[in-house]
Design goal:
The protein is mainly α. About 30% of the residues lie in helices and about 0% in strands.
């Protein structure tokens, strides 16, 4: 068993505090800033780790999705249901 705890990581570059690696990526790094490159590397490795974890253990379906529609309730927009009789009949 591998246990990965939740890690909260908050870091900013002192020279470029508005740099956001998730939105801007490599093209937004100014002047080959080493700290911005490290922040981008951390972001990319995190994305890769999350992807690998999802490959290893896919997310579980909720019981409602797994069992399909409930048999107790008729669907609202189904062609199988006959229209109600008109009020004037």
């Amino acid at each position: 068993m591998l246990k990965l705890g939740s890690v909260r990581f908050r870091a900013k570059c002192a020279r470029h505090p508005k740099f956001n690696p998730a939105r801007e990526g490599l093209a937004a790094i100014r002047g080959a800033c080493p700290k911005c490159h490290l922040l981008l590397d951390i972001f990319e490795m995190h994305q890769r780790l999350v992807g690998l974890m999802r490959q290893a253990v896919p997310p579980r379906e909720t019981p409602a999705k797994a069992s399909g529609a409930s048999g107790n309730q008729l669907p609202l927009f189904s062609s199988d249901v006959e229209p109600a009789a008109a009020a004037g009949d």
